[in-house]
Amino acid sequence: LTKDRFPYLKRGSYSMVDSTDIEYFKNLLGVNNFVTGEEVKSYNEDWLKSVSGFSKYVLKPKTTEQVSTILKYCYKRGIAVCVQGGNTGLVGGSVPVFDEVILSISAMNSIISFNKLSGVLVCQAGCVLENLMNYVQNEGFIMPFDLGAKGTCQIGGNLATNAGGLRLIKYGSLQGSVLGLQAVLADGQILDCLNTLKKDNTGYHLKHLFIGSEGTLGVITKVAIQCPNSPKFVNVSFIGLESFEKVLSFFSLVRKEFSASLSSFELMDAVAIKSVQKNIGIKCPINDNLKFYVLVELSSDNNYISHSIQEFLEKALDEELILDATVADQPSLIKNLWKIRENIPESLLRYGYVYKYDITLPHELFYEIVPEIRKRLKNLDVKAVCGYGHLGDGNLHLNVATIEHNVEIASAIEPYVYEWTSKYKGSISAEHGIGFLKSKYLKYSKSNLEIDLMKKLKNTIDPKKILNPYKIFPQDEIN
Ligand code: AKG
After folding, report:
1. How confident is the model at residue 479 (pLDDT cuts 50, 70, 90)?
2. Which of ligand 1's atoms lies nearest the C-alpha of 390?
3. With a 6 A CB cut-off, is 271 part of the ligand 1 pocket?
4. What ipTM does this complex have?
5. Could you give the CA distance from residue 371 to residue 11 in angstroms, rounded to a whole number?
6. DSSP string of 251-295?
7. 433 alpha carbon to ligand 1 midpoint, in Å?
8. 312 membership: H or E segment, kind and range
9. pTM of the model
10. How far is the CA of 397 from the centre of ligand 1 (A)?
11. Is the CB of 88 under 6 A from ligand 1?
């Protein structure tokens, strides 16, 4: 349990759920949408098995009005609420820390409308990302972001954590593509910012407060998102290189040559590739003895990309900038290449436990921390230290895999990795959020004034602090 691993944590002075509360929730939701007993276990634990609470109840509203009724009630009673989407987060943000009631949005999974002219999709927050992808694909559109967890993660959770993902380099962040949202505030008021207009400069845009708020300011219930047209041509190259310097030179050339067509530029080091080969059994499609690999996705309405990438890679091979490469332009082959990259997190978890760091750094420094951490851990029982991630966006995933959680290993990495990131003006959380696990380290990326304003906002919008307590802010500072 989280409280055992973090003994300094104290449960906030929230009310305990009693039999009257249970009757109220059951009557409101019906027995099928009020979960209790053994089934609650999986909602209490995160995917990484690094944070787990002991909530006894999961509420699964189907409508915004039900969310509003629940929160109005919990607010009045002073019951703490943990908001949960697909529970695929990596910072312990979506699971309870103590006995918070879990409000799962998974039953709110209807598509409300899709406008083929504007490409604007409006849906409930519990829609699974992959279902939305398939839906808009049938209409000739794509979702403006993609994640390895697409089969499970939910759009409301994606917004709440401001998920970045694999195509941010081309389509930008959710702050840009989300046109509007509806959220229920801690006291049950429904805030309707479900704008579907591309342009609307009418004062503060409150939607931005909720994108990345990790459930601490309100429960996102509906989303309006701008979907781009499906590109007519897509190709993916998988390339091997001998040094990180060459990766950077190659990135610079790719960006110059393909600019707007570049939809992904992902880095994987040799340890990450070995982990996928060994633990998942997916073969590396090119020479598997190289130091670095990159996956380059190009997408365009013009087929020039297919011819030019071939020529471009041949030239890079001739000049020994790259050492091996393969290109795919058929959907099933493209999917296979993506599988290698997307399976890295799962493959590392198969060792037992993974310490995860998700940092943004200037490109020149992107990989430097990985050998640094290897050095620091060389006498400890570590299975793999690897670096991979969205090099195009300067976002490194540094993962350290071990058999189980170990305090000595943890303290050899933290806070060192955050101090290092902060020294180079990087971000200590590029796309995973702060959640529970990183709340202690918020100060490495935010100034005192910023944290102060954030707290003022939290206290104004949720003065009883019932929404996702113990998340984002270090506990001693907020409760
Ligand atoms: C990714 O694979 O892009 C992720 O965001 C997951 C990274 C991780 O598991 O550390």
Report:
1. very low
2. 3
3. no
4. 0.97
5. 39
6. HHHHHHHHGGGEEEEEEEEHHHHHHHHHHT-PPPSS-TT-SEEEE
7. 12
8. helix 304-318
9. 0.95
10. 6
11. no
